[in-house]
Amino acid sequence: MNCDLLLQGGRVLVTPDRWISADIAISQGQIVAIVPNVSTTSESAIPDTIASSASSPSSPTVASNSEVDGTGAGIAAQQILDVTGKLISPPFVESHIHLDSALTAGEPRWNQSGTLFEGIEIWRDRKRNLSLEDVKQRAIATLKQQAMQGVLFVRSHADVSEPSLTALQALLEVREAVKDWMTLQVVAFPQDGIYGSPGNEALLEEALKQGADGVGGIPHYELTREDGVRSIQRIFELAEQYDRWIDIHCDEIDDDQSRFLEVVSACALRREMGDRVAASHTTAFGSYNNAYAFKLLGFLQRSRINFIANPLINITLQGRTDSYPKRRGVTRVKELWQAGLNVSLGHDCVQDPWYSLGTGNMLDVAMMAIHVCQMTGTAEIDACYNMVTWNGAKTLGVADQYGIAIGQPANLLVLDAGDRYDALRRRATVQTVISQGRILAETPPSHPVWRGQN
Ligand code: 17E
Ligand code: FE2
Fold first, then answer.
1. 23 and which of 35, 44, 277, 375 could share a cystine (Cβ 3.0–4.6 Å)?
2. Distance 311 CA to ligand 1 centre (A)
3. Which listed residue (118, 162, 205, 252) is catalytic?
4. Residue 189 has pLDDT above 60, yes or no
5. Which CATH code is given to the segment(s) 2-90+403-442?
6. Is 98 in the pocket of ligand 1 (CB under 6 A)?
7. Same CATH fold, 92-400 and 2-90+403-442?
């Protein structure tokens, strides 16, 4: 067999709960062979799923062990990467970011209170001065930063509550400009509320006509509870009419009476579209009384909507009106995961009015989830890694083109780590990013040298 690129000796994450030691052959942008190294294979035997997942039109096959001598010599390659002992992972998925506001921290002023609401005020001033170039340049810079750290799928919100729809148009152009190396989805997000000012409802619909991939909302920031409920109903109507999925900023507040999640879940259940719906943030869920939360969890298991938590942001934004004890202000990630629901994680912001920090690294996000959600058990740590990989792919609806299997697009990462725990603990360097079969970015791992005394 001939291939373009051969990765030798990696520890390959083939499913969310299994890795094997294997060589991976890539040709014409696709994974064409996965050859397990039997002598060094982990706990698992050669999984049947590898052979059975073959779906490429060119019918590549798993090379049998007799074709190789354990060093991949049975496969000729244009380029060989020795990745012995390194973690080979499917790419990171950024489930939730605001690319239109990225890299604007301090413009026109710093968020001194650290609240969501001061952030919205500051952004309202900053967005008066948006130009296509301004948004595109910041968005692409942020996407490159993320891609170099292994993110190849991104869902971004675009604020559509400003009359020129500049942010939206810019991000739609960016979606096109980056499509050879990054899959970008754009949500039409009415930051100031659909009914917050008279033109906003029409702007949201116009954004869908212009090509936004999904419909967003912010029911907890509508002027009344009734408006919040009405906004959710409108979002579902628009999603059906324009055949789009839904991703709502939902209950991003510490108010234990903010109960729009149940409305989103009920609408999804009635319309049988749970897998096309995501509830972002849902931080009030962390403040609900347990009796209500328990009932709600059962309803959520019926609607099967997706959840997106943003622990870096919400651990800083929430709890601001508390004294002590101070709430964590993050949704019930562990309980949702234990209930079998799909939870993925987002960075939400990189240096913007809501969060002045951030580098776009998804390992930082998962690391914060481990801490804030107290997911320190071994299976829980791996689950947090899965929330920035497979679970994100499910939320984004791209699971069919995601994962390391024969016939899939060759999107994968080489991490300077042995396993997920190691990668997370050290926030390991993503040393090679392969996008659609080509090496997109390389970062040499750092190896500090001790020069002190013993
Ligand atoms: N807008 C919003 O409503 N909530 C957020 N966390 C951000 C923007 C970042
Ligand atoms: Fe957000």
1. 35
2. 12
3. 252
4. yes
5. 2.30.40.10
6. yes
7. no
